[in-house]
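PROTEIN DESIGN WORKSHEET
SECTION A - STRUCTURE
LENGTH: 380
TOKENS:
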């Protein structure tokens, strides 16, 4: 059995409430996300993928830190952070949003949860959005309180995740709709549960609200899920690229705007409410963009793993973009990738070359997401 000290972890990076449990259950490698360790290896990543798409996996995603916004002006302040119109967002609802800066650049692409009229959680991707929100609040003139609560999510994802949830919480949990949340308890363990996740499969996120009970919660879920084929696992690069899901710092960063990612639906420039970046995004929309995200099929032998650097893309030896995320999909039997390309080459069927290692490899622009583009599995 692997011992905690064998990893050589220091104290400067935080550990999740599930950290010890993940090591007991086979975590072999970690990376750092939001200043916190996250398990990245439970063995063969292809087997992890099949566990996800055929049965269910349990993932420690406590690194999705929550930025809690409360106070009399919480709703107005939260709207100021995002170009997505929140005016019709109900209590108990979740939304995928973008947080933009004054230049229209993306600082984060979190899930926003509305727990009460003036109570929100930003479930953050990998960037310091807590500090951004606190900084914006200082000179906002609004009455808000912003902090990081004791909240640590788990992801229960896969086609059998619903059956596991029913066994944990009873039949009533089946009424929980896609992108909605509910407050629950499991043997006195307080949680918020949402029908969300980073897998493009049917799935749930369980937001533990008492970090001292993380080990207990993990073991209860694993034991309950065992008869359904539940396995401990990690977020699947294969499935998230199949689903066209963004990884912040890879597929988007502070220099990327929503129109380059074809996320116009998350920007409402016509609403009365003001938000940071509104003028810049209005200008960008008017001028058009010089590059856009595309899907690629890359020829050649199956990739041995995800790309660990941005691969240059060229046409007639001229640089025209970069591959941001790439993987071999055993289900599609293809090398698939997300890429940022010069706008003139973003039409479906365009042939380009990806420079991998010593030479260029042919690739073709295709529609994406690559699998289940309408998210029918997740929304079922």
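SECTION B - SEQUENCE
RESIDUE ASSIGNMENT:
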């Amino acid at each position: 059995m692997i011992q905690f000290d064998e990893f050589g972890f220091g104290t400067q990076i935080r550990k999740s409430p599930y950290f010890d449990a993940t090591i007991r259950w086979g975590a072999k490698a970690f990376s750092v996300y939001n200043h916190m360790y996250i398990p990245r290896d439970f063995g063969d990543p292809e087997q992890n993928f099949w566990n996800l798409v055929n049965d269910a996996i349990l993932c420690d995603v406590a690194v999705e830190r929550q930025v809690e916004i409360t106070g009399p002006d919480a709703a107005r302040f939260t709207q100021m952070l995002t170009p997505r119109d929140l005016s019709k967002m109900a209590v108990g609802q979740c939304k995928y949003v973008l947080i933009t800066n004054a230049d229209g650049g993306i600082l984060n692409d979190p899930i926003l949860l509305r727990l009460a009229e003036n109570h929100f959680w930003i479930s953050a991707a990998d960037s310091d959005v807590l500090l951004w929100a606190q900084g914006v609040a200082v000179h906002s003139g609004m009455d808000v309180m912003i902090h990081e609560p004791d909240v640590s999510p788990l992801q229960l994802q896969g086609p059998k995740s619903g059956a596991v949830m029913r066994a944990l919480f009873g039949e009533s949990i089946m009424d929980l709709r896609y992108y909605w949340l509910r407050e629950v308890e499991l043997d006195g363990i307080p949680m918020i549960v949402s029908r969300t996740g980073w897998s493009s499969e049917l799935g749930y996120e369980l937001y533990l609200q008492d970090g001292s009970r993380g080990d207990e919660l993990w073991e209860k879920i694993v034991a309950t899920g065992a008869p359904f084929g539940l396995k401990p696992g990690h977020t699947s690069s294969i499935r998230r690229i199949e689903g066209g899901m963004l990884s912040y710092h890879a597929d988007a960063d502070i220099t990327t705007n929503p129109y380059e990612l074809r996320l116009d639906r998350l920007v409402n420039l016509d609403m009365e409410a003001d938000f940071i970046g509104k003028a810049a995004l209005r200008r960008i929309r008017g001028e058009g963009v010089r590059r856009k995200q595309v899907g690629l099929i890359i020829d050649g032998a199956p990739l041995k793993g995800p790309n660990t650097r941005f691969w240059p893309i060229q046409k007639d030896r001229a640089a025209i973009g970069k591959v941001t995320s790439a993987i071999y999909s055993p289900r599609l039997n293809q090398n698939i990738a997300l890429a940022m390309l010069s706008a003139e080459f973003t039409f479906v069927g365009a042939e380009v070359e990806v420079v991998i290692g010593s030479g260029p490899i042919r690739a073709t622009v295709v529609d994406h997401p690559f699998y289940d583009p309408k998210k029918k599995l997740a929304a079922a």
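SECTION C - NOTES
The two ends are 39 Å apart (CA to CA).
The CA atoms of residues 183 and 191 lie 6 Å apart.
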